[in-house]
Predict the 3D structure of the following.
Amino acid sequence: MTMPDHSMERDRAEARFKRAQKATQDAKEAWAHYESEARAIREKTARLKALRLARDAADLQRAGKKPGTKAPPAI
């Protein structure tokens, strides 16, 4: 009787394990990239909103109106 060759099975199992580890690492890196992109978009949006609100307030002040008041309806 011959002994089964367990080294090939072990090599295959190790290769599967390494592929699974690499896939997990790639997924973590992709998620980190996604989160950093989302954070950058939120920060940029907040900055642009603050600039827009400041611009609108300055426009109202130049026009002599108080913020929060509306212009009279056009006839």
